[in-house]
Write a structure and sequence with these properties.
The chain is an alpha+beta fold. It contains two helices and four strands, in the order ββββαα.
Length: 89
């Protein structure tokens, strides 16, 4: 994954955003994931990961269980990072 896909290389940002939903990079290099709990303002911490893909899978799993899956735009309106993985289950 290139630097352009997961945030730039400058700008003095503490955390870099990634192309995956619910994933960002800390300035010291760890990838973290969190999700907002439906119907509340509370955020659920999903953890720190070595790769953005691992953090994105954690986010997708939380979306699937909290919002009922259906990441195809129908139903709960949840958007998954890897919708093809959810369809395989």
């Amino acid at each position: 994954m290139s630097r352009a896909e997961c945030g730039g290389g400058g700008g003095g940002e503490e955390e870099e955003r990634c192309r995956y939903r619910g994933v960002r990079r800390r300035r010291w290099g760890k990838w973290v994931s969190e999700i907002r709990v439906p119907g509340t303002r509370e955020r659920l911490w999903l953890g720190s990961y070595a790769t953005p893909e691992a953090a994105a899978v954690a986010h997708d799993t939380a979306v699937y269980f909290l919002r009922g899956g259906a990441g195809d735009g129908g139903g709960g309106g949840a958007t998954l990072n890897f919708p093809e993985r959810a369809a395989a289950t």
